[in-house]
């Protein structure tokens, strides 16, 4: 293809697609062991794929107008610059964003010897994308990718709104109004990644809207599938937004069903949809047994996470009634939308605008499709999370619908006097402007990293700006003493929630073993995997780095894993700045040459007072029950015999402490016949008659009481350390039988 033809095709989004292609292809190259060879393969395949895209892409005559860069790009650049000079210290960034990007760019997500160094090993493609820009431009300007993704999104929105607004300057101003919501602006200069999928979703939406009139349906269908798969790869929470777009595509395909050729490309589209998702899904499945780990673990049953469905009860609606109206009422409960607890109400406006566009007569068909996607997307979002950062796409669609309503009303009331026309057509627009004004107040006040804006602290921002393009490597900001210390680290023990990002930047090439996520130690397989990882670093110099205000918590996590603490040293770690400094403590981890014997044998006639929670590996028992009736009357009481054997390496104390806690009891649990629904776990309790050493067993009488309602039930026998946990919750096997109550 000749250069002029390429130039006519190229747009901002096409250039930005290069790093998008690169991060997904880099995941495929994880299988190449040599780092340089892997990157060579990645670059060659990326350039090949991008060149094929440019060659196949239909030429667009709807070029982005020049005034767009004045009306939209300049204000967004200004907002970006207001906080970009000060390094982003958002919780998510220090907790998992930095380590995800740093590790995945270098190779597979887990190094040899790692033990789940960050809490959720989700698809790291979005963090790889920000990581690319961080390595190329430095830490401060690494967030430029968010600004570029937002500008790319704006060019697509401008194309979609062309049939609604004839004047170019009006469309560009409308784009700025549509984009300006507080949570979009909160993220524009941070390493949060929710903005990166917006252009992919918007472009697939645009192609879906024009599909019936398109002369390149095969391309539109195939390319949209790849975009939607990429959106899911960048952020799995986009699963609430992808199905509505697919439904619109299905409706458009059905409307064009006379064109039989399009059905040939559905299989290709399905393959392209999966391409961005497959490498990570396969990799994490091999690592954990769950391709979406730790989500949906009640389906995939990875041994490294609980089978209880993952949910954060702090956010979103409570109950199905609230779920149905959550997009509307969310404006009045901002504390349940996100950590900042601030919300200007774009979702409420979006939901109402979508209803108006669906119910009003003579509405443009494409607009009805947008309204359908906004309505379905907002309800699916409410049902899956209700957390506001995951609804940015719906917020943008809602802004577009409000703009359309104002334009449509203006045209329909053209016969009225001008003041009346302005009043009617201006009402939706006034609501949008009011929401934007409130957003502007919030944006000035705060953002995810709580950084001040430059106009409030101009001197600090000016001093920080001197590090722009010079902040690619965190070690260059360290003192000679710090460099010498960190050079000695052979492995990290992650012991606090905001340290793994710093550890990964200081020594990204060493194994990292996390002890601060209890979920990974709830099952025996997790504890065994940790033991193997620990064995691999036993002869090495192992350290943990924690913020000083998290030191007590970190020491407690280390104690729970039986890790001995050696010398501790307070230190100051500059974070890409002489102004931004972390006050941290470096903890030496002392590993014994051989495994520590976990417990001693007790005198067989002694009842020892429990001193605290058992070690996780002590929750291992073999259980059996005798004299259990198959049929019981409602509320009937029966005494059964339970055989208990301690199959762990730890001794169990049988006597409670002075607060009546920590002793081991035999307990019965009643479940519905589906084996999932709990009826009662507070029925019978029988205390061990004496301490049980490893390998020792005994028999205990347990009195059980049948449920008061007729039906089939499952009786489960378990042990419980009072005040701590049932043994089942730590991975021990229970004993079960079916009992009919009649």
Quick description:
The chain is built from 25 helices and 15 strands. It is α+β, with helices and mostly antiparallel strands.
What can you tell me about this protein's structure?
- There is one protein chain.
- Among the domains are: about 1-55, no CATH class; about 200-305; about 475-590; about 615-740, Immunoglobulin-like (Sandwich).
- α23 (about 500-505) links the parallel β1 (about 490-495) and β2.
- α2 crosses α3 (about 35-55).
- About 45% of the residues are buried.
- The chain is globular and about 95 Å long.
- The protein is built from 25 helices and 15 strands.
- With about 750 residues, the protein is an alpha+beta fold.
- It has helices at about 5-10, 10-30, 35-55, 70-85, 90-105, 125-135, 145-160, 170-180, 180-185, 200-210, 215-235, 240-255, 265-275, 280-290, 295-300, 320-330, 345-360, 365-385, 390-410, 420-445, 460-465, 480-485, 500-505, 525-535, 550-560; strands spanning about 490-495, 510-515, 540-545, 565-575, 580-590, 620-625, 630, 635-645, 665-670, 680, 685, 695-705, 710-720, 725, 735-740.
- Strands 7, 9, 10, 11, 13, 14 and 15 form a seven-stranded mixed β-sheet that branches. It has a five-stranded mixed β-sheet with strand order 2-1-3-5-4, with helices on both faces.
